[in-house]
């Protein structure tokens, strides 16, 4: 897989985006979903991640119902609202 030739929309770099496997967290209806080993195009300058349409479709469809092949994880959710006012 070669590098993507589009410039990043979020910074001025001329460097091409690099294909990487990343972890993506999404929330749907109060339920968090963690997707591992997701193919993404990553800007080497600012780190912004771009996803191909078919990858987004898969994540979207997997959030429609309870996944039977998922591994449960424990997480700490921390609010910083009081500290960032
Ligand atoms: Zn960038």
List keywords for this structure.
three-stranded antiparallel sheet, alpha+beta
Structural features, described:
The chain has a domain at 18-62. It starts with 17 loop residues before the first strand and ends in a 23-residue tail after the last helix. It has 85 residues and is α+β, with helices and mostly antiparallel strands. The chain is globular. A hairpin with a 6-residue loop joins strand 2 (31-42) and strand 3 (49-50). The protein has a three-stranded antiparallel β-sheet with strand order 1-2-3, with no helix packed on it. It is built from one helix and three strands. Helix content is 12%, strand content 29%.
Question: What is the oligomeric state here?
Answer: single chain
Q: How confident is the prediction overall: mean pLDDT?
A: 90
Query: Order of strands across the biggest sheet?
Result: 1-2-3
Q: Would you identify the regions where 5 or more consecutive residues have pLDDT less than 50?
A: none
Number of strands: 3
Return Rg in Å: 16 Å
Q: Beta-strand percentage?
A: 25-35%
Distance between the termini: 45 Å
SSE topology string: EEEH
Please identify the structural class as seen in this structure: alpha+beta
How would you concisely characterize the structure shown here?
The chain is α+β, with helices and mostly antiparallel strands and 85 residues long. The chain is built from 1 helix and 3 strands; from the N terminus they run βββα.
């Amino acid at each position: 897989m070669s590098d993507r030739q589009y410039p990043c929309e979020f910074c001025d770099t001329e460097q091409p985006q690099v294909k990487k496997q990343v972890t993506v967290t999404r929330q749907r209806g109060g339920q968090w979903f963690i997707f591992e080993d997701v193919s993404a195009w990553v800007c080497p300058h600012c780190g912004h991640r771009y996803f191909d349409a078919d990858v987004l479709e898969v994540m979207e469809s997997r959030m429609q119902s309870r996944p039977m092949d998922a591994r449960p994880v424990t997480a700490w959710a921390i609010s910083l609202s009081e500290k960032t006012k």
